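Title: Request for sanity check on Transporter prediction

Description:
We are preparing a figure and want to confirm that the structure record we downloaded matches what your pipeline produces today. Could someone re-run it with the sequence below and paste the raw C-alpha cells into this thread? We only need the C-alpha cell string, no images.
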Amino acid sequence: MAGGRLDEHVLDFLDFGGTWDPSLAFVMGLGLCVSFPAFLVAENEDRKPLCGEVCKFERPSKTGDYGSLVLGATFFGLGWGLVGICPGPALAAAIPNMVADGSPGVYFGLCVLLILVSWLVTDQVITQLNSQQPTQSAEARKLLSDEKA
C-alpha cells in the first residue's frame, strides 16, 4: 500500500469528520479475508499445520484473566491514535533518519534497540519465573498431610 507509513495518510483515516480516507479500511478488510479462513482451518481439531508432525496449532484457553491484554491493547491503540502512526510503519519511516547524518536518528535507533533488548530480557525473565515450580520435600508433604488429618 503506497503511503501507508505516512502520518498524513493515517491521520486522514482517523479523521471521520473531515477528510476521511478509507484506504486503510480496505487493507484491514483484506487482512480479515486472509486471516478469517486461516483461523477456521486452525480451529478444526483434526487439522495439522503444513510444516509436519512436529508442528501443532496452539489452542489457548477460551477463559482466563485477560485484563492485562485489554490494558495493553488499549495503550497501544491510544498511542497509535495520539501519534497518528502505527509502530511498524513508524520504524520503517525512521530507518532513513537512522542512517542519515545527524544525531537524532542515532539516538532514535539506540532507543529502539533498547526497547527491543528490554522486551526480550523481560520475556526471558517471565518465562524463567513461570517455569520455576515450588517443590515440596517429602518432609513438608508429610507435615501437611499430618495437619490435615
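Thanks, this matches our download. The chain has six helices and no strands.
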